[in-house]
Fold these 4 entries.
Entry 1:
Amino acid sequence: MAARYELHGIWLSGPAYKVGLMLALCGEPFDYVHVNLRAGEHKSPAFLAKQRFGQVPLLVDKGNGRALCQSASILEYLAEMLGKFAGDTVEEKIQAREWMFWDFDRLSPNIYRSRAIRLGLRSMPFDTVAMYYNEGNVALKVLDDHLSGRDWLVGKGPTIADIDIFGVIDYAAAGGFNLAQYANISAWITRFKALKGYAPPEAILPKESRAA
């Protein structure tokens, strides 16, 4: 049976990892299409016709022809389509969404950009680098405090909020952040990696296109 979903991304992309991780945790096989950003494939007319922002990830739902963009929005879509990780109540769904918006505002920019700088993908003045690092640690402290006495971000089980934020935290060490000083985050990471279907970025995002 052909895979319903087709994920377009690149192995370096944290947001693409979030979507692939969601599919893996749901036990949903997917076709993977490598997008060569250096060659400008993400700015081609064919790609822009499906992903208006010219970014990865792009998820194509071959069951209905939808082309979806922005990782948080895709996670919400998949939670609805697959019936998993959405949250058990309206309140949990609202809180999960709030954490995802918080991540986009406070956590992911500082961690992803710090990682890009350390990998040599971006160059910035020292003051800017220090700002991202300091604000990243402020966000990590907020997350660590919230996880005190809790197994998951929202409710009694993992939700798309955990998947969304794990897809950032997994890159924190590469950004120079010392997660060992955040005991609650470290324990949460251990729980997350024990989930059925979990796989690291290199197992989910290959360096070339791959069928399900």
Entry 2:
Amino acid sequence: MKKLILVFSLLLLTGMTKAQVKIWEGLDISYGRRVKLTSFLADENPTGTAVIVCPGGSYYWLDKKNEGDTVAMWLQSQGISAFVLEYRAAGIPAFAYRHRAIFRGRQHPDMITDAQRALQWVRTHAEEYHINPDKVGMLGFSAGGHLALSTAWFHYHDFLKDAGVENETNLRPAFVGAIYPVVTMVKPYVHKRSRRGLLSEKHHRDPVMCDSLSLERHVPADCPPVFLANCVDDPVVDYRNSVVLDSALTAAHVDHRYIQFQTGGHSFGASEKRGTAECREWKTEFLKWLAEIKF
């Protein structure tokens, strides 16, 4: 009986601290019904800071638990309101059957359009969420790191307008965190599965598209502060993705921090069990960095 009461209490608490919205509801957006934004609002948020969390998954699927809800609950516990974005991804059938060589399916720019819509939504509802609209940043993991960075890189292009949605909201994140991110779409460090997931079987070798979405080649003049962290022993995304981005940010004089861990691998998210004790320090370092940049 005591266990049942405890479980019920936890479920009740979870229901009180998070809520989900479909950010394309009522709009004619292909597959938009699948796009969800789940809020994890901090009880005490003195700075008004909020973070939109983008899970990874090679642009084919989403690690919604480990790189989504777990991250958001950790931020919430630290007095930062968080929003997990379930953006459009290609899907497992596209990975298995590669039908996007014939049918469009879900591909770029669907993902960044969803990210811009999430940023628009959170800022538009800032008063309701008790946050500062000028302190909304993004945090992404793996391919989600590429998405979070892309949202900052290409904020000057209104993908919402391309989708037929009027917008008057600033689409530039206040800051960006990218943990073991995909960065480049060209050799020698490209993560080929993420490139194919993003661009489809039909376009993943298009040299113009690959160049334009290789973030180390196009650092914007008004780039927001960036936090990077990854591990040398990452077996999935070559750690030099972050190395080349660090070099590009340094050359462009962008306020940023890059922390390179020796161990930890990939996909550890905000877990207290995955990875290593060394790499799990990214959370402490991220909070320190937010404080240093006045967020």
Entry 3:
Amino acid sequence: MVVQIKDFTTPGSEIFANLTERELRNSYERKGGFFIAESPNVIDRALTAGYEPISFLMEEKHITGDAAFLIQRYPDLPVFTAPRQVLEQITGYKLTRGVLCALKRKEPCTPEEVLKNAKRVVVLENLADATNMGAIFRSAAALGIDGVLLTPECADPLNRRCLRVSMGNVFLVKWARIGKTAADWPENGMNLLKATGFKTLSMALRNNSVDIDDPALYNQDKLAILLGTEGDGLLPYTIEHSDYVAKIPMKDGVDSLNVAAAGAIIFWELRAGRTH
């Protein structure tokens, strides 16, 4: 059902209004809520993962173009449309791919569900940047990470930018919040990892740091890799209570990498089943 719009006074189109990510998330918490996915490929992965679509917003040319297969799959859903310049004016942001979809959120996984049968997981501690998070999810999906755990202060993986940077791979990797409030991490979360048989590895520069190719690391059956927030890194408690502390060996004068780049290297080096 195609509906031409000039603003968000058209009933049903207000879901695409110029809301902040916090407002989208708060709406979810109050009402069962939604998130916005962008680009046909990302939307397709969300639908394949079982998320229920509410409506589409797109440039007119995509109705019979890149998004035609999505519309054919859900012919009864509203498809709000207008020229690109009108859409950008009323949404308040540039449409990189010209196609948006509002989808209902699902009941999130629990940490225990993520850890069950997993061999390699990554724990993101207080990671705030959606771009970095999206890149980490993309690397995790590609390089054999079984699950992603997020501390309560992390950004939302269903953030529109995170979804786009991850190329929809957020929908291919199990993830969960490891705790509901800041008080649940790090002590309670670290205890859960250890209780479920995981050895914990903090990535940090310390006197006791080993290189990531240390056999003690890649020989672990179940390993949780902990990556810290941009700038400050991991909390002192997290590092002190980890089974291992490791670093990526680098040339003199360089002491660190962007957290997303570091994650890709670590995931490849410590993948399950790796042998020398």
Entry 4:
Amino acid sequence: MKKIRLTEDSRNNILEQLLKRSPASYGEYESRVAQIVSDVRREKDQALFRYTEQLDGVRLTQETIRVTQEETEEAYQAVDSSLLEVIRKSLANIKAYHEKQKRYSWFDSTPEGTILGQKVTPLSVAGIYAPGGKAAYPSSVLMNVVPARVAGVPKIIMATPPGKDGKVTPATLVAAKEAGVDEVYKMGGAQAIAAMAFGTESVPKTDKITGPGNIYVALAKKEVYGHVGIDSIAGPSEILVLADETANPRYVAADLLSQAEHDEMASAILVTDSQELADKVEEEIQGFLKVLSRSEIIKKSLDTYGFILVADSMDEAIEAANAVASEHLEIVTRDPFQVMTRIQNAGAIFLGDYSSEPLGDYYAGPNHVLPTNGTARFFSPLSVDDFVKKSSIVYYSREALAKAQKDIVAFAKAEHLTAHANSISVRFEDRD
């Protein structure tokens, strides 16, 4: 982990290095993904089954691609009852949080004879992608399905890659059932994204696809965007801890490592105005690396994308945090609530010693599908809003339009759009 004095140059160099992790930088994979998507769009089930056998080693048919009720029941038998209890507690917290995000249609009328409004309508079909095998994350299933269910989406399907035995990870299946998924399909990778984007003989076409995945999944979502909606093109995980001399160095070190263990491209950054804290955190990290099971992955992550930045002041530290726009931002300072008011860019903000990032990953309730690679400057966490669409409502009476007639005609003629002007004028020919 590199310890650096924070300057404008060092900040810009780090930002440039972090951006290289974006899926948009992986051009060598794009042609392969584009071919898979094109084949599935054209050949449907035939290509979907071919790629599943070729890439996952599983032969599927129209009869076996969809998870059965019996398979779901088997999954419940395989999942420990204590994990099931935790899933249900987490699910309740996530649902309660997202219920507060619900939007409703509204209409405003005026005495002049106008009605303006907004009609909120849930999407018809949502497609959720869930990784499988060693990368199975039931927590992500909950985070993607719950906002869609709260939004009122009538049909939610999920794609997840099967193991070599043709079965789906039990915890993933149980989480899907608990959250309210209607249909689960045994398919993964770019071919699964294409199937949900365009539909096949076996898989229904969806309106939006959300959920994490590897680089092939991320690039496939990028490829189908426009044909369907997507949540985002997610990059590797990242955390930034903003801390002062009051922070507990052992806690800070543990939190940095909690993200570095995701993969070798994950980023962990400490920004502090305390040289003493920086030194102690570095020491604690070395101690943890001796005992953590994923130390090799953590070391590679920290060697490339791990930084301890020592600022001259908390003002500079906050400025750096806003520039990085991290997926996860922990504020561990004397008054974290005051510092939080000055944060403009972050996916999720965790305040104080006891709001560690994994709390948000699993349990608290806010969504853990967050913007990465600096996109927190303009993107938000996954929410109920992602699963609804809004239609504008416009009504004018003849009398109300008459009052606006000259203004609209003048505007249209100024843009040389005479048919637009005529569309208004023709309604008042009897007055001319």
